[in-house]
Amino acid sequence: MSRIFIAVDLPSSVRGELIDVLSSFEGFKLKLVSPELIHITLKFLGEVSDDMVSDIASSLDGIECMPFNANIKGVGVFPNLSSPRVVWLGAKGNFKQLHDDVEASLSRLDFEKDKREFTAHATLGRIKFMPKGQMEGFLAVLDKLKEVDLGEIKVDKVLLMKSTLTPYGPVYETMHEVLLGRK
User: Fold this and answer.
1) DSSP 3-state assignment of 164?
2) Between the CA of residue 161 and those of 87, 92, 125, 173, 174, what are the distances in Å?
3) SS (H, E, C) 10-48
4) Which domains does the chain show, CATH number per domain?
5) Which InterPro entries does this one have (predicted)?
């Protein structure tokens, strides 16, 4: 069994700027994601038998979405400001069609479609509990970063990724790469 997800990777030009964004949250009670691991998840499949990976890869090869430019912009939280659990970096572009193509390609393999509406984002950190004394400062940092602009990226490939959980954090391995617009 492998823990699998489908993602769009961020280029190194964005990762460099991510370090500055992440450093804004130092001192707050949240678990930040390492800059080299930050990505835009299109679909999390969870534990999948290893013999299904090639079928998943073949299905993803059928994605019809063409390459597109996307803006990596804005920092916010899920589910809301009064009860933040996830700190995210926004992504604006043709991600809805790309996500729908991924869903359609995997539905043939009986993967359930996501129940929540898809929102393109990259997770920057997770919050289990924010002490009341830190909340005001945390919200001030969020307000300062809500319009941060890390620039434009070219979305021209989708990655099938394996995530291995370790005591030191997850280790990601690319299992398959789908180049968009190559059908």
Assistant:
1) strand
2) 22, 22, 19, 6, 5
3) CCHHHHHHHHHHHHCCCCCCCEECCHHHCEEEEEEEEEE
4) 2-179 (3.90.1140.10)
5) Cyclic_Pdiesterase, Phosphoesterase_HXTX, RNA_CPDase
Per-residue pLDDT reduced to its tens digit, 47-85 = 999 999 999 999 999 999 999 999 999 999 999 999 999
Which is nearest to 157 in space by CA: 132, 144, 176? Answer: 176
Work out the angle at residue 33's Cα, subtended by the Cα atoms of residues 27 and 39, and round it to the nearest 5 degrees.
145
In sequence order, the β-bridge partners of residue 46 are 4
Predicted confidence at residue 49, as pLDDT, reads: 93
d(CA 104, CA 59): 9
DSSP state of 55: H
From CA 79, how far away is CA 86, in angstroms rounded?
7
Q: How many residues does the chain have?
A: 183
| Residue 94: pLDDT over 70 | yes
